[in-house]
Design goal:
The chain is mainly β and about 180 residues long. The chain is built from no helices and 15 strands. A four-stranded antiparallel beta sheet has the order 1-2-3-4, with no helix packed on it. A four-stranded antiparallel beta sheet has the order 5-6-7-8, with no helix packed on it. The chain has a four-stranded antiparallel beta sheet with strand order 9-10-11-12, with no helix packed on it.
Amino acid sequence: VSLVYFDVLVDPRNGDVYVVGDDPTIHHAVSHDGGATFSDYTRVDEAYAVYYSDYSIGQLGRIVVAGGGMDLETSVWNVDADAWSRGPGGQPVESERASAAIDAADHIHVISVAMGAVTLSSSTDSGATYSSVPVASGSEADIAPSTFVVGAPVIYNDEGVIRYAFVPNPPALAPR
């Protein structure tokens, strides 16, 4: 398998190691022994393909995949049930300009850049729907895996100056 974009993720619950990547069809392998050995790569249904992908794993065994060539694409993999779901598209994104994270409340956050605007899209329903808010102007952005905080820590490039923003979950997204 020749993967263009990939990541290595460790499930915080059990230490399983996942190698997930795309070509743009998503492939994955898993290690149940701390990375000493891996399963063969499994090819995921092309319906869940994501271009220029970024990956993050949450505390409840879900991996979010975000990316896109022109429109933001997201897929979510529940590793326990080996079940995939596809999120809605439509948010503009430039190639290689999307990044994903899952916070401590198990909410999915995706940061994307298009036409100089940095936008945060968040989901409380496992990626079925997203609400989006503008964060800043910038040419590049990344979101930090936030398994110990509730909200979205974001860094972005504002005309050559690296800036940081923390976007807390609005009351509708706050944990109950």
